[in-house]
Amino acid sequence: MKRFGALALVVVLAAALAAPSELAAQQRRLVTIASGWVVGVYYPLAGAMSRIAYKAKDLNVRATVESSGASVANAQLIGTGDADFALLQNDIAYYAASGRTLGAFKDKPVKNMGGIFTIYPELVHIVAASSANVKSVRDLKGKRVVLGPQGSGTEQNALQILEAYGIKEADLAKAERIDAAAAGDQLKDGRVDAAFFTTGLGSAVIVDAFISGRVTLVSVGGAEGDAIRKAYPFYTLEKIPANTYKGQESVVTTPAVMAMMVARAELPEDLVYRFTKAIFDDLKQFHAAHAAAKHLTLETALNGMPIKLHPGAEKFYKEKGVLK
Ligand code: GLU
């Protein structure tokens, strides 16, 4: 008891002695941004948003960035109120909000997720160890494959793509769910034959894997590409241009979705309005976070938006005339 009393006194004294600016900082509302892989694109983007939010004069928040498996986990964190903002894929956001398609959300839709903006295409990078001699997704049968991190959108995309080729998880020698950095390392030293990563072009984990000179990319196109778009309409087919990565000699076609930002519906309209405004007022800093971030513009911010907007974001777009 005594020690508690002393501790409380120290805290009170410290508060009394704190400079006014420090006091203001203490009053900042703490919010969390659920991001993704430290070696991916969400994480640096969330970091940039946190810095922009901190600097914004009329937005008194301190945003902490959490790394995670990503999309599926992030939707769940919004649902339980454990995250205030999150980055995730637009396909997963739709499945989460509607309770459709994915087992993770059946009978437990995430009702409290409000859209803020969509940002850039995330392409399914199917990276194979050169030694594994994988020329087509079909060749993954009997191989050791990383489907994606636990709780990722990637894992779902991997299962959907394998399905289009008639491959079930049981047809693989090993199906792993491990974090993206570990997947990159295991590809480089041939401990796994292939790994899926749904992420922006130039994602650090892919850049790094190609620097090893020991990996290749696998295409998804033709009849299977069409089938997958029909079965899961969020996909578009995009190209990874030759030489996007070191030693990547030919262009690769692959399904893609959009990265997007959401907020918990319970967050005050004014806070989300100011947050959204702060990002668009400082697009330069946002764009500097990663090449993929440059896709964010006011004109394209609602392309592929699969869920209803957070009222704060809606107010911002109306004010800008982007929405009627
Ligand atoms: N889209 C990825 C996923 O949900 C995360 C990508 C990233 O962190 O850059 O699986």
Automatic annotation (TrEMBL):
Signal sequence bounds: 1-24
Its keywords, alphabetically, are: Receptor, Signal
The record's annotation in Gene3D superfamilies points to: Periplasmic binding protein-like II
Asked if the record carries the keyword Signal, the reply is: yes
**Transmembrane domains' residue ranges:** none
Q: Which Pfam families match?
A: NMT1_3
Enumerate the NCBIfam families for this protein: TRAP_TAXI
Q: What is the protein name stated in its UniProt record?
A: TRAP transporter solute receptor, TAXI family
